[in-house]
Write a structure and sequence with these properties.
The structure holds 2 protein chains of 2 kinds. Chain A is 32% helix and 24% strand. In chain A, a hairpin with a 6-residue loop joins strand 9 and strand 10. By secondary structure, chain B is of the alpha+beta class. The chains are: A alpha/beta, B alpha+beta. The interface between A and B is large, with 35 and 37 residues. The structure holds adenosine-5'-triphosphate and magnesium ion.
């Protein structure tokens, strides 16, 4: 059984000019222990799609299920990591990591050890008492990651998690995410990564879903069958990059609207 | 060895963060552990001088050797990248403890009143003169915390010796009284007050916790 199934999902938002279609007829599956990347132009609905998957918002049409159950309300088996880290500046590292557990009403006596475990797993030992402002970007994102993993999610959703980081820091964290994902003793089972960075998608993912311009639909799903660590300068890597790049730039025309006049309102 | 172990004044400071240094090692690993430095930088669309601070420090920590413009893992570097996030961190920590810089800082912390130093003390002890002091201090503090050599009270700008083995050769050294949340600063110590010059300190080992 698929871990997540996204079936014929449409999403539109109301605006002064009527409803605007953001995405159209999106269908894909996430298998157990999948590493899936989603790429597509700005505004094509990638962040919205992650929110729909986690149950933070509802599709206009279509269905999303997790382990065969429709996602209704926020799914506690999923956790999100954000580009902006989204940490509480007035809480220490430990308190930030504890936050999600408290929200899920974990028993107090279990929270402490869980927080310690995930601080250690993400390399944050020594920074327990620090406030986010004292940390480098890389360390802040580790806190975002520790907070997400502490709830032991089956699925880690990541929305441009590396794009606010310098190149070397991003390189380190990308590889650490792979490590955590591969470790059977640690969450998550599956990862969905949203990124603008095509190379990053190919470097990390088993499969890359390429979305069109708004309203976003799936242009193609591309399998990445290269051994890790992947050499960005290798021929096959380059071919994949090139293929996805041309899909996005040339093939990215929106589908004709199925019925009404929605879809192509003001840019 | 990049740094002689009996040097009294450390000369090499970390100029990048632990995560950046790890990024460099991961990058090198993606090139099978040995690559032309210019190519490495190019792989991430960086200029050589953007990876140089991490490279230099990785060399000091004996994780990487650079010969004729080519970077290669040492055995230890190889071992580090093969390890988990935790194992990597513990190797970095051990290597860091061996540097003159961090040995100097730990020794100073051991002898300092309450096993604490201010930012200004730190800058004096490690003789920061040419480097832009704030950034250098922040980098050193960042690495020291990462390696759990000391804790840091950012409000009071004070380094506080960590509990483990490091502090107690005599056995009398207990953890300083400030565990858990650190108070905003030691009572009565004005943040701006000039620290005594390092050479006059040492002698005044203040008793730690009662
Ligand atoms: N709550 C909302 N109400 C109205 N419009 C919205 C809402 N959320 C998103 N949108 C619009 O939906 C479109 C898709 O937004 P989304 O943030 O999902 O795109 P994205 O692919 O993540 O873009 P980017 O790559 O820039 O992050 C955008 O045009 C955005 O303005
Ligand atoms: Mg987005």
């Amino acid at each position: 059984m698929a871990l997540i199934r996204v079936e014929h999902v449409d999403k539109s938002f109301a605006s002064r000019h009527g409803s605007i279609a953001i995405m159209q007829d999106i269908t894909f599956e996430v298998k157990d222990s999948d590493f899936l990347a989603i790429v597509g132009p700005s505004g094509c609905g990638k962040s919205t799609l992650l929110r729909l998957i986690q149950g933070l918002d509802r599709p206009t049409a279509g269905a999303i299920s997790f382990r065969g159950q429709p996602v209704a309300g926020v799914c506690t088996q999923m956790a999100m990591v954000f580009q902006s880290f989204a940490l509480y500046p007035w809480l220490t590292v430990s308190q930030n990591v504890a936050f999600g557990l408290e929200a899920l009403e974990w028993p107090k006596e279990k929270i402490g050890s869980q927080v310690e475990r995930y601080i250690s797993v993400t390399g944050l030992d020594g920074f327990q008492e620090a406030y986010p402002r004292e940390l480098s970007g890389g360390m802040r994102q580790r806190v975002g990651l520790a907070r997400a993993l502490a709830v032991e999610p089956a699925v880690l959703l990541m929305d441009e998690p590396f794009s606010a980081l310098d190149a070397l820091t991003a390189e380190s964290l990308r590889e650490e995410i792979l490590q955590l994902w591969r470790d059977p003793a640690l969450p998550p089972e599956a990862v969905i990564l949203v990124t603008h960075n095509i190379e990053e998608a190919i470097q990390l993912a088993d499969r890359v879903i390429v979305l069109s311009r708004r309203p976003g639909h799936v242009l193609e799903t591309i399998d990445v069958d290269l051994p890790r660590p992947r050499d960005r300068k290798s021929g096959p890597f380059y071919d994949l990059t090139d293929r996805i790049y041309s899909l996005i730039t040339q093939g990215g025309a929106p589908l004709p609207p199925p019925s009404g006049a929605d879809g192509r309102s003001a840019s | 060895m990049g740094e002689s172990s009996d040097a009294t004044v450390p000369t090499i400071f970390p100029k990048s963060s632990p995560t950046e240094l790890l990024g460099l090692l991961v990058l090198l690993n993606g090139h099978k552990g040995s690559e032309d430095v210019a190519r490495l930088a190019d792989d991430l669309d960086l200029e050589i001088d953007e990876i140089f601070p991490s490279l230099e420090y990785a060399e000091l920590l004996q994780l990487v050797k650079v010969t004729d413009g080519r970077a290669s893992f040492t055995e230890l570097g190889q071992k580090l990248v093969a390890g988990s996030i935790r194992e990597r961190k513990s190797i970095l920590r051990e290597q860091l403890r061996r540097t003159t810089l961090f040995k100097t800082i730990v020794r100073a912390l051991e002898s300092a009143p309450n096993h604490q130093l201010s930012d200004e003390d730190l800058a004096q002890i490690v003789s920061l003169t040419t480097a832009p002091a704030d950034e250098a201090v922040q980098n050193i503090v960042n690495w020291g915390r990462y390696a759990e050599l000391f804790r840091y009270d950012a409000e009071a700008h004070r380094l506080i010796l960590s509990k483990p083995a490091a502090s107690s050769r005599s056995g009398s050294g207990r953890t300083p009284p400030t565990t858990g949340a650190t108070p905003p600063g030691p009572p009565g110590s004005a943040r701006k007050s000039n620290p005594p010059p390092p050479e006059t300190r040492g002698a005044g080992v203040v008793p730690a916790a009662a």
